[in-house]
Amino acid sequence: MTEVYLNSKFAGNVDNATEFVESIKEERRKSNITGNLNVHFNENSDKIEIDVSRGRARRPLIIVKNGRPLLTEEHIQKLEKKEMSWSDLVKEGIIEYLDAAEEENTYVAFFEKDVTAEHTHLEISPLAMTGLATSLVPYGNFNQSTRLNAGSKNQKQALGFYAANFAVRMDMDVNILHTPQVPLVGTIMHEIAGYDKHPAGQNIVVAIMSFKGYNMEDAIILNQGSIDRGLGRSSYFRPSTAEELRYAGGLVDEISVPDKDVKGYKSEQDYRLLEGDGIIYPEAVIAEGDVIIGKTSPPRFLSSLDEYSLASSTRRESSVNAKHGEVGVIDFVCITENEEGNKLVQVRVRDQRMPEIGDKFTSRHGQKGVVGLVVPQQDMPFSASGIVPDLLFSPHGIPSRMTIAHLIELVAGKTGALSGRHINGTTFDAEPEERIRKELQELGFRENGSETLYNGETGEAFEAKIFIGDMYYLKLKHMVANKLHSRARGPIQLLTRQPTEGRAKEGGLRLGEMEKDTFVAHGASLLLKERFDSDKTIVPICEECGLIAIKDEFKNKSYCPLCGENTPISNIEISYAFKLMLDEFKSLGIYPKLQLKGKY
After folding, report:
1. Which of 309, 327, 353 represents a domain boundary (last residue)?
2. In the structure, what pLDDT confidence band is assigned to residue 532 with cuts at 50, 70 and 90?
3. How many other CB atoms are found less than 10 A from the CB of residue 71?
4. Which residues, in sequence order, are CB contacts of 595 under 8 Å at separation 6+?
5. Domain count, the chain
6. 6 φ, ψ to 5°?
7. Confidence of residue 530 (pLDDT cuts 50, 70, 90)
8. Is residue 500 included in any domain, yes or no?
9. Helices 404-419 & 433-442, crossing angle to 10 degrees?
10. DSSP state string for 386-420
11. Which of 289, 318, 353 is the last residue of a domain?
12. All residues at 6 or more sequence positions from 110 whose CB lies less than 8 Å from its CB, including other chains
């Protein structure tokens, strides 16, 4: 007897497992039971698992019977004439959806020509195995699987034209590429998804070669001339918001230029860009710390006594400033109301970004890298026909990663650019490499994509032939301008008195356990004395009981709360975090006694 489980719960036993599973599949194909059902017979554990639950990834396949696919030419003609729809194919049992479990018991053919009597299903198209982003990678079947995954992920981080109405949207932290292009080497998915409406990259000339060691370890080298002509140029947008909140007792915030008697008034210089209504004007150039929206709020803590005093009328400053490290131009100002009917002001800051050292670029094959050097055009290598590459890619990125499609795309892009056409690079169904190489040879170039390049500084020909061609490159949202961060002194946390964390909060850079080891290994261990005193504190300690004493600033003397005023007290230097730990011990009822030795 074989156990049957429905949605992982025991449902009963059956005598003939194979017959039972087949009958369920037949009924599903006849639409007598729900098409959402999947059945899996696990022969090892002798269990049948039926699943109709939600949240399973399922994919459609053409059913094969007796070595012939059920989808015929007649069906395809009916689909083209719109006499039949996709759902009809599913209802008639020509196509069915399988989940990961049921797929275990199937034998799927890639192409119709491969179908044998043993096959149970046929792929609609092998491209359907991949997701949307993955199917945009040209010649994907020539790449190692890991790199195909990486290429898919990288495309999601590329800058492009994300929405046509971006000018009137207030989106958080977005980028627009100024001159996006449609790729020369595309896939069928580029047409289906309407990629020309939202492109996210540029076709550029790439040469695979080393250059003075500046493109080691995945770095790339850019041509300054290409940047001047608009390569990878983008705009970065970021909104700031302020609203007039209402508080208990009829008090409200006010968006206006703060008066000088307001608590926390900055300086006239900070408010210089505000207009009469307290809001900055469009196209104003701002720097870090400038006030964008002026605002005052009622005092924080109102007690019953304060209401009668004159002091309570002092409002506090709560303006919106340009954040730490933020510069740019005011792009758009919007004054509206929120759901509660309170005044809401939104201001968008724009910043033009040109590629610089540290910005991240990638091809569609997971070959990502940061800019290691920007070279003046006159120093870049050039070909016999006067072509200067826009980007130099390191040859060491190819052998271990096995991204052969990266190389094929270079040759295909070169052919497409010279013959003025788009090249189909659909995974499993692309233009064959041999035909492209033949066409390139007919156009007067070497069929293997390499050319003689000349040194831009000396004019001498390089001995090695350099692989050069056209390629679709993407600029990623990881720009050095958003990540650059340093600090000397700055804000600290209230509890531990250590520097705050993170770039946005102007935090410190943590020197951790491993960094400490490197200093010790260098023999620079005394440097740690300086590195580890971000929360250095001087604490009075009672020499009798070893607990922390009290420093009375008013009387300018220290005394121990336990032993009285006449005990000797020493000031010692410890980390505030250690002092905090001693206090935590006290709360547990543990006596942390500090035994002081004389300092000789």
Report:
1. 353
2. confident
3. 18
4. 546
5. 4
6. -110, 120
7. confident
8. no
9. 40
10. ----SEEE-GGGSTTTT-HHHHHHHHHHHHHHHHT
11. 353
12. 123, 126, 428
pTM of the model: 0.85
Q: Is residue 524 part of a domain?
A: no
Instruction: List the one residue out of 439, 431, 469, 471 whose CA is nearest residue 187.
Output: 431
Q: Please give the Cα distance from 416 to 409 (Å, whole number).
A: 10
Q: Are residues 310 and 391 in the same domain?
A: no
CA distance 69 to 75: 12
**511 falls within a domain:** no
d(CA 443, CA 440): 5
Q: Are residues 296 and 345 in the same domain?
A: yes
Q: What are the distances in angstroms from CA 249 to CA 42, 246, 303, 308?
A: 69, 9, 12, 14
3-class DSSP state for residue 431? coil
Contact 479, 353 (CB under 8 A): yes
Buried b (16+ CB within 10 A) or exposed e, 366-399: bbbbbbbbbbebeebbbbeeebbbbbbbbeebbe
Sequence-separated (6 or more) residues with CB below 8 Å from residue 264: 316, 317
- Structural domain of residue 160, as residue ranges? 140-233+357-475
Active site residues: 218
Cα separation, 351 vs 481, whole angstroms: 10
- Kindly tell me if the per-residue pLDDT of 315 is higher than 80: yes
Identify the burial level of 39 via C-beta atoms within 10 angstroms of its C-beta, where 0-12 means exposed, 13-18 middle and 19 or more buried: buried
Strand order in the sheet with 234-243: 174-177, 234-243, 343-353, 328-337, 285-286
The runs of H, that is alpha helices, within 193-305 are 224-228
- Do 343 and 457 lie in a common domain? no
**391-393/220-223 β-pairing:** antiparallel
Query: Band of the pLDDT at 302, cuts 50, 70, 90?
Result: low
Query: Does 244 share its domain with 226?
Result: no
- What CATH number is associated with residue 459? 2.40.270.10
Residues 220, 364, single domain; the answer is yes
**Are 228 and 242 part of one and the same domain?**
no
Strands (E), 198-308: 202-208, 220-223, 234-243, 254-255, 285-286, 291-293, 295-297
Domain annotation covers residue 433: yes
